[in-house]
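User: I'm curious whether this sequence folds into something compact or stays loose and floppy. Could you predict its structure so I can see for myself?
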Amino acid sequence: MIRQYVSNIERLFSLSPIVLSSDFQKHFDPLEKSLYIKGGVIFIDASVLSIAIFLVKSGNKVQPEKYRFQYMDSKGEMLFRYDNARHHPELKTFPHHKHTENTVKETAMPDIEDIINEISVIILKRRSS
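Assistant: Here's the prediction. I'll summarize afterward.
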């Protein structure tokens, strides 16, 4: 179940036409009831997505307990970061939130597809300007 979750993440990035390369490190506990996955994805414009997810298997579900998706331009400047660090209790979606260049926004944990789509839009906008 956890391996399938990870395979899906890897598959989505491998199929995306905006991805140049991706590299993930996976650390399973001996019983495969939890997993820490971290890695990076390099896109066609040399921007980078850094990923860290701690997954826990509970019954028939795999739940991300902690996560961070940080997207940076080719110069290393952060464009956005989704995470669930517990440092914005004032938000309705606490602990889930999104950092942008100047603000913190309420949001749910995004799906990998949503992140790829968001990055696609950013890359297209930058190429057309």
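Summary: The chain has one domain: 2-128. Strands lie at 19-28, 34-43, 48-58, 61-72, 78-83, 97-100, 104-106.
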